[in-house]
Write a structure and sequence with these properties.
Blueprint: E1 3-6, E2 9-15, E3 18-21, E4 24-25, H1 26-33, E5 37-41, H2 42-55, E6 61-66, H3 73-81, E7 85-88, H4 91-99, E8 107-109, H5 116-124, E9 129-132, H6 135-148, E10 152-159, E11 181-182, H7 186-195, E12 199-205, H8 216-234, E13 241-243, H9 260-273, E14 280-283, H10 287-290, E15 294-304, E16 311-314, H11 323-327, E17 333-335, E18 344-349, E19 358-365, E20 372-375, E21 396-401, E22 404-409, H12 414-418
Parallel strand pairs: 5-21, 6-7, 6-14, 7-8, 8-9, 9-10, 10-11, 10-12, 12-13, 13-14, 16-18
Antiparallel strand pairs: 1-2, 2-3, 3-4, 5-15, 15-16, 15-20, 17-20, 18-19, 21-22
Bound molecules: ligand LLP.
Ligand LLP binds at residues 66, 69, 87, 110, 170, 172, 207, 210-211, 245-247, 284-288, 323, 327, 381.
Length: 425
């Protein structure tokens, strides 16, 4: 038997031309559960997590999985069991994390627009930290905490004004972004936080963007954050933890980002050199923990030769895989069972009635009607961003663990979709 690992997807292998997730043949899953179908490898998630754990070995550190990347309960449970905390951005994510078994103290609440109701609930369950994004939010959080008879642990998200060199929609640490408190306002914001009755300052945080494949922006951002730690503490506000956000990219198309372990060795060397090595560290990785742990299986519905382009129409669409339409995101697409024959160049498109509904452009494929394809790197920001556009039900999801395949989400039916709707009469 010849076995080859898919690039960037260590637990997805081709065995004699058949694609496997760990020890499960993907073709069998598609037959049993239909398509489109998301398939995740638990071992891949744990392997990605292990790289961060190696990076922090011997340190006081907490890895808080940014669950916006994939918030399916079966995925969250993997990270709960592995000892992770969670980074959340809504009351909905808070409830999901709790349902999956997370403890309040292991949850950090990020986001630029928390409502009072969300703050109240987060205080009630005792979240570990609120990552506050504005001075106005500090005031409201203090008010809500006082009214609830509690003290809110806070960290201020600072905007280090560093260009992460990624897609503009997913860079968050530049002056023009809506996120965080400006560098020059930081000391003032901390003094204010320290003076408010409902708050207790516990840390500092930042997040400069997502799908970062270059270590430069991280190293620069760390320098700027450490400058702020120094300035804030000099102003009399001690900081117990440093939360460096998420953002490490994954290999979508051959651009290989730094390993989490080697990146953190470099960042910690900087931190040690400045004398902050004894602090508690937190990070909020999302994509890098789940992105290349998942694929989306889809069936070729039609091949449609054209005058300018050939189209390969598949049964997955922009409602399942929104990243190409939203960010011109690239996902590799490979056959689930390799067949011989000449490859042709196709645009791989879905059934949604939009020209923006494409999954891959100019792809060389030797495909026939009825074949199965796997859209790679589909573990992050696919299912969690999926919609019902065109009244398409969201796909089913499988979590593979060795020789076992667990159905962690059933395919959504039309009845599920219309459950909350009423006609006027
Ligand atoms: N922490 C904060 C405060 C964030 O805003 C984000 C992502 C993360 C952590 C996790 O970042 P990651 O490690 O996943 O890069 N939908 C886009 C990505 C949006 C990311 C938004 N914030 C995409 O599909 O590329």
């Amino acid at each position: 038997m010849t076995t080859t690992a898919l690039p960037g997807h260590p637990h997805f292998t081709l065995r004699d031309g058949e694609l496997f997730a760990e020890d499960i043949r993907l073709q069998d899953l598609a037959r049993e559960h239909g398509t489109p179908l998301f398939v995740y490898s638990k071992a891949s998630m744990l392997r990605a997590l292990a790289a961060y754990q190696r990076g922090f070995a011997g340190r006081k550190a907490q890895i808080c999985y940014a669950m916006k990347a994939n918030s399916s309960l079966g995925v969250l449970q993997v990270f709960v069991q592995a000892g992770c905390g969670f980074d959340i951005v809504s009351g909905g994510e808070l409830e999901r994390a709790l349902i999956a078994g997370a403890k309040g103290k292991d949850i950090i609440f990020s986001g630029v627009g928390k409502t009072r109701a969300e703050m109240r609930r987060a205080l009630e369950v005792g979240v570990g930290c609120f990552n506050v994004e504005s001075e106005a939010e500090l005031d409201v959080l203090s008010e809500v905490a006082v009214a609830a008879g509690r003290t809110a642990p806070v960290s201020i998200r600072v905007n280090p004004d560093v260009d992460p060199k990624t897609h503009p929609y997913i860079s968050t640490g530049l002056k023009g972004n809506k996120f965080g408190v400006a560098h020059e306002r930081t000391v003032h914001a901390y003094q204010r936080a320290a003076s408010l009755p409902g708050l207790k300052v516990v840390g500092i945080d930042c997040h400069i963007g997502s799908q970062i494949t270059d270590e430069g922006p991280y190293l620069d951002a760390m320098d700027r954050v450490l400058d702020l730690v120094q300035a804030v503490e000099a102003a009399g506000v001690p900081l117990h933890h440093i939360d460096f956000g998420g953002g490490l990219g994954i290999d979508y198309d051959g651009v290989v980002p730094p390993g989490a372990d080697s990146l953190w060795r470099k960042l910690l060397a900087k931190i040690d050199a400045r004398g902050y090595g004894d602090r508690h560290f937190m990070i909020e990785p999302g994509r890098s923990l789940v992105g290349n742990a998942g694929v989306c299986l889809t069936e070729v519905l039609y091949l449609k030769p054209g005058a300018q382009k050939n189209f390969c129409v598949v049964d997955a669409a922009m409602n399942d895989l929104p990243r190409p339409a939203m960010y011109q995101g690239h996902h590799n697409i490979v056959p689930v069972s390799s067949r011989g024959g000449d490859a042709q160049t196709y645009d791989v498109v879905g059934p949604v009635c939009e020209s923006g509904d494409w999954i891959g452009r100019d792809r060389a494929l030797s495909a026939q009607q009825g074949d199965l394809l796997a859209v790679l790197s589909a573990g992050a920001y696919c299912m969690s961003m999926a919609s019902n556009y065109n009244t398409r039900g969201r796909a089913a999801e499988i979590l593979v663990d060795g020789v076992r395949a667990h159905l962690i989400r059933e395919r959504e039916s039309v009845a599920d979709q219309v459950r909350l709707e009423r006609t006027a009469s």
